[in-house]
Amino acid sequence: GDSVTQMEGPVTLSEEAFLTINCTYTATGYPSLFWYVQYPGEGLQLLLKATKADDKGSNKGFEATYRKETTSFHLEKGSVQVSDSAVYFCALQNQGGSEKLVFGKGTKLTVNP
Amino acid sequence: EADIYQTPRYLVIGTGKKITLECSQTMGHDKMYWYQQDPGMELHLIHYSYGVNSTEKGDLSSESTVSRIRTEHFPLTLESARPSHTSQYLCASSGRFRLAGGTQYFGPGTRLLVL
Q1: In chain A, which residues have their Cβ closer than 8 Å to the Cβ of B36?
Q2: What is the DSSP letter of B70?
Q3: How far apart are CA B108 and CA B89, in angstroms?
Q4: Per residue in B7-20, is it b (16+ CB within 10 Å) or e — as a string?
Q5: A interface test, pick of B3, B41, B44 with most A CB neighbours within 10 Å
Q6: What is the pLDDT of residues A10-55, one digit of tens each?
């Protein structure tokens, strides 16, 4: 079945450091890929998405590129801020059927001033 | 900005009580979902709906039930709450895949504690 493997945390960085959170997937067909962010005590917010190979999703300084050859969708940000502290989830979605999201286990990021 | 609402946000209740978690969306989305998030953060699909009068069970077995009588409303009910039901419950909705990319928008969640 479909699955997402995500870099385990927690990850602790200093402000303005470079961030990478690795995500790889296994799926049939051609899934869409997503990064969601969850701030403490809140639900999930869509951070960015990509729907086909070589697409780059970007938002709020975060980027991820859909790499079909390596089945990856790594999240990057050049300079993190304290306000980026949250849990990040990589997810995939196949077309048809329930179109459910299959999530990775989440990576908790803490950014210190 | 997604308009999807969940109530209550927090609920502490005793074992054996019946509870209903409410979820409403104002986007006219056809598909709605319930996910359960365990304390280790993992998210699992427990119910989904393609539209009015359609409900299906998800991947994770759950003792809860759902109904979809109106497009905008997708409540989840536990007939007899148990401590094992303690979790966060997240509701989501999405439009038709081809038109909206199938992106799911999430509500703020209900954090349930059963004593």
Answers
A1: none
A2: B
A3: 9
A4: eeeebebeeeeebe
A5: B41
A6: 999 999 999 999 999 999 888 999 999 999 888 899 999 999 999 9
